[in-house]
Amino acid sequence: MSTIRTMKISMAWVSIAWTACYLAFGLIPGLGPVAMPYVLHMNVPMENIFTVGNFTGGLIVWNLVVAAGVALAGFLSNIIKA
What we know:
Blueprint: H1 3-27, H2 31-39, H3 52-79
Helix pairs in contact: 1-3
């Protein structure tokens, strides 16, 4: 499988996961305060952080992180031969 195809698939996956999690935390009342100590391993106050800007910014940041990780994995797999 090519690195570009793997990057596209992984970015689609992280977009779906980000959207599902954002909707779950935004639409299910009480989920944030219950789940955050387990998700972030710390108590974070859950105020009204669910905005279009936060959603878009998080989506962009997570896609960039995943793209960089897949690109690094592809680069290393091309350099390191068995």
